[in-house]
Specification:
The chain is α/β, with parallel strands linked by helices. Among the domains are: 11-129, no CATH class; 213-247 and 304-407 and 425-442, Rossmann fold. Helices cover 50% and strands 8% of the residues. It has 16 helices and eight strands. The protein has helices spanning 20-30, 43-52, 59-72, 99-108, 132-156, 165-182, 186-201, 220-223, 232-238, 248-265, 269-293, 307-315, 326-337, 352-359, 361-367, 386-414, and strands spanning 11-14, 35-37, 82-85, 115-117, 213-218, 242-245, 342-348, 373-378. A four-stranded parallel β-sheet has the order 2-1-3-4, sandwiched between helices. The chain has a four-stranded parallel β-sheet with strand order 6-5-7-8, sandwiched between helices. Helix 2 (43-52) crosses helix 3, helix 6 runs antiparallel to helix 7 (186-201) and helix 13 (326-337) crosses helix 14 (352-359).
Length: 442
C-alpha cells in the first residue's frame, strides 16, 4: 500500500511457527515492509539448528536459527538487507537470552550483517512498516481469523465424506484471509472470513458416529507445526478422535494479563490502562470474527474465556507469579471443562515449562474425574512408539466420553417428575466429569 519507509530492514524474515505467521508477513507487506515466512521446520532445518547449538537450548531457538540459516543458502539472499524477526518474550522464558546464540550462529556462517529485530514501543516498532499501530491491528485480525479456520477444519475434517475436501476448503479460506490482510483493510479480513464459510459449508459431513474430542496442549511454536507435533492431529483423527488445539489467542490474552499486572505493580497506571484497552479491543475483534462463522462451530462457548478464568485455574496448582509451566495447567482445565475427553500434552525436549506442566498432570486429572492425559516428547529423534501410545490413549478417551454421557443421562432422568405426583423427594445433585471445576470469572 505504501512505499518502504526509511530506516527499515530490506526484508524481514518471520519464524515458521505456523500459518498464523503468514498473517504477520502479510500485514508487514501491506504497509511497505517486505517480509516472508522462513521455511517450515523439517528434519533438515532442525538439524541445521542443532549443529550451531550448544546442547542446552530449547527447541524454539533451534528451529528459528535453523530456518534462518537454511533460507540464507537459497539464491538471492542478501545479508545486508535482511532481518530476523524474534518477538520479545516474557521475562519468565529463557528464550530472552537466545539473541546472542543467533548472532554467534549468523556470524559463524558469514551472515553477521543480518539484523535481529524485536519490534516494540521502545524502538518505534522497527521493522513493522510505515503504520505500526495499523499493522498490529491487521496481525490480530489475521491471528483470530486463522484460529477460526483451524477450528472449523479440525471440527469438520473427521466427519467429511470426501477425503481432502475440508483441507481444500481451509486452503481457500487461508488464501482469502492473507490476501485481505495485504490490502491493509481490517474490514476486508472480516469479509474474507465470512466468504470462506461457504467453502466449508459445501463439504458434506456425517456426524452420526460421535468421536471423543481431544485437547492438544504444548508450546505455541509446536502446536501449529505438523513436524514438531509429530503429526498428532492426523493420527488422532485416523484413530477415531477429534482434535481441539489450544488457540493462539489464549496465549496473548494471558500475556496481556501479565503485562497489566506488571504495570500495576510498578504503579505505571498509564501503561496498565493502555494494556487493558488493547485487551478489550482484541476481545471485540474476536467477537466480530466469531460472529461470521458461528454457525460452523460446534463449541458451546465459541469465544475464548477471559484471562481471569485461566488465572483462577492456574492458582489451583501453581503460583501465578512463576508462570512458566502454569499456563498449560489452566488451559487443560478449560479444555476439559468445555467437553474434551482427553488431554494430549506435547513436550519439546529441554523445555522447563513443559516439564513442570507435565508434573502437574496427575493433580489436574484428580480434579477432573481422572480424564485421560498423555505426555509425548519431541526429541528430534523420531516418534518412537507414539502410534501405539495414541491408540491406547484414544481407547481411554472413548471410555471416558461414554462414562460422561452415561452420568449425564442418569442426571437428566433423575430430575424428571412423575405426572400428578404431589410429593417428590429432593433429587441429589450428580457431578458430571467436565464440571467439577466450575467456570468462574473475576
Amino acid at each position: 500500500m505504501t512505499t518502504q519507509t526509511h530506516d527499515q530492514p530490506g526484508t524481514v524474515f518471520i519464524p515458521a511457527i505456523g500459518d498464523h505467521c503468514e498473517a504477520i508477513a502479510a500485514a508487514l507487506r501491506a504497509y511497505g515492509q517486505p517480509s516472508e515466512v522462513l521455511p517450515a521446520t523439517s528434519p533438515s532445518t532442525l538439524a541445521t539448528g542443532l549443529e550451531v547449538g550448544k546442547g542446552r537450548e530449547c527447541m524454539f531457538s533451534l528451529m528459528i536459527i535453523g530456518g534462518m540459516l537454511e533460507r540464507a543458502k537459497q539464491p538471492g539472499f542478501d545479508p545486508a538487507r535482511s532481518a530476523l524477526f524474534y518477538p520479545a518474550l516474557s521475562r519468565k522464558c529463557v528464550g530472552v537470552n537466545y539473541t546472542s546464540l543467533f548472532r554467534d550462529a549468523l556470524a559463524s556462517n558469514g551472515l553477521e550483517q543480518v539484523e535481529i529485530i524485536s519490534p516494540d514501543k521502545a524502538n518505534g516498532f522497527r521493522g513493522m512498516g510505515s503504520h505500526p499501530d495499523v499493522v498490529r491491528g491487521l496481525i490480530w485480525h489475521g491471528f483470530i481469523a486463522i484460529d477460526l479456520l483451524m477450528r472449523i477444519q479440525h471440527q469438520r475434517r473427521p466427519y467429511e465424506l470426501q477425503r481432502g475436501a475440508t483441507d481444500e476448503a481451509y486452503k481457500i479460506g487461508l488464501a482469502r484471509v492473507i490476501a485481505a490482510i495485504e490490502t491493509g483493510d481490517t474490514n476486508r479480513v472480516v469479509s474474507a472470513l465470512a466468504a470462506s464459510a461457504s467453502a466449508f459449508e459445501a463439504v458434506a459431513i456425517d456426524r452420526s458416529v460421535p468421536r471423543p474430542r481431544i485437547g492438544v496442549l504444548g508450546d505455541f511454536y509446536m502446536l501449529y507445526n505438523p513436524y514438531l507435533l509429530l503429526d498428532a492431529v492426523r493420527q488422532i483423527e485416523d484413530l477415531g478422535g477429534e482434535v481441539e488445539i489450544l488457540r493462539f489467542a489464549k496465549f496473548f490474552y494471558f500475556i496481556n494479563w501479565m503485562r497489566e499486572q506488571d504495570a500495576q505493580a510498578l504503579k505505571n497506571h498509564q501503561v496498565a490502562l493502555e494494556v487493558a484497552l488493547e485487551n478489550a479491543y482484541q476481545h471485540q475483534v474476536e467477537a466480530d470474527l466469531v460472529a461470521t462463522v458461528r454457525h460452523l462451530l460446534s463449541d458451546e462457548n465459541p469465544h475464548e474465556p477471559k484471562a481471569s478464568v485461566t488465572i483462577n485455574d492456574i492458582k489451583r496448582y501453581y503460583h501465578v507469579g512463576i508462570v512458566n509451566g502454569g499456563f498449560t495447567a489452566g488451559a487443560a482445565v478449560d479444555m476439559v471443562r468445555e467437553g474434551c475427553a482427553g488431554v494430549l500434552h506435547v513436550i519439546p525436549f529441554l523445555c522447563i515449562g513443559s516439564i513442570i506442566a507435565s508434573a502437574l498432570g496427575n493433580r489436574i486429572r484428580a480434579d477432573l474425574n481422572q480424564v485421560p492425559w498423555l505426555d509425548i516428547i519431541f526429541d528430534a529423534q523420531g516418534g518412537t512408539n507414539v502410534r501405539t501410545r495414541l491408540e491406547a490413549f484414544l481407547f481411554q478417551a472413548t471410555q471416558f466420553e461414554r462414562a460422561k454421557a452415561s452420568v449425564a443421562r442418569a442426571a437428566s432422568q433423575s430430575t424428571e417428575r412423575k405426572v400428578g405426583e404431589t410429593l417428590v423427594a429432593p433429587v441429589r445433585s450428580v457431578r458430571v466429569a467436565t464440571s467439577i471445576i466450575p467456570l468462574t470469572v473475576q
